[in-house]
Amino acid sequence: MSAQIPISTFKPYRGEKARLARAYDYLILVLALFLFIGSFHLHFALTVGDWDFWVDWKDRQWWPLVTPLIGITFPAAVQAVLWDKFRLPLGATLCVAALLLGTWVTRVFAYHYWNFFPINMVLPATMVPGALVLDTLLMLTNSLTITSIFGGGAFALLFYPTNWPIFGMFHQAVDYHNSQLSVADVFGFQYIRTGMPEYLRIIERGTLRTYGQYATPLSAFCSALLCSLMYPLWWKIGKLFADTRYLKKI
């Protein structure tokens, strides 16, 4: 039988020790926030990549399909932790806000001020409305199945109309060397950048001027189906990493 230690033995920190303990907790929270922003931003940059970086790569086929599918991964995992452990319905909104913060810092300082790209050329997409719907459905239903089907679908379907007011202006047709292009195409031809050379991809099928035609709704609904399947997978991954496990005493 192990001896029980009375609760009165444990005394809270007071004075200088309490101040240092609180300062240490705040430091850990700030470092954890920056680590989370960096990890989600790195994950997003390596998977979505050029579709979210360049305005002329935001095409009608892959951009509405890939971006929500990759963007729902971290929100689902964080929701599994915050909702299951703390009953806080803000996991998805927190993730998207952290991603936007890290993305804007990168685009402004690394691409605009450092590499002199116009900020209009490297505007990031937003997923805030879809994240709000995802958190709201989880809070109202408290059901993983309903949130996966309807929340995951809404997260993908809201991506197209949410970003249309931001990127619709780049559809403006211009005459460029006796060729009809869009403003987004002119950006792509005028500014040299690393990555895939322009002559290796078919310009007509991969630029913003085709965004908004028949392929976009099909890509959006396909992304909604895949997001409904991706959401419970990453929910389980987040819950697995949040489980507390103890080693057996030998």
TrEMBL record:
Keywords: Membrane, Monooxygenase, Oxidoreductase, Transmembrane, Transmembrane helix
Enzyme class at the top of the EC tree: oxidoreductase
UniProt signal peptide: none
Transmembrane segments: 23-42, 62-83, 90-110, 116-134, 141-160, 214-235
Molecular function terms from GO: ammonia monooxygenase activity
Assigned EC number: 1.14.99.39
The protein's name: Bacterial ammonia monooxygenase, subunit AmoA
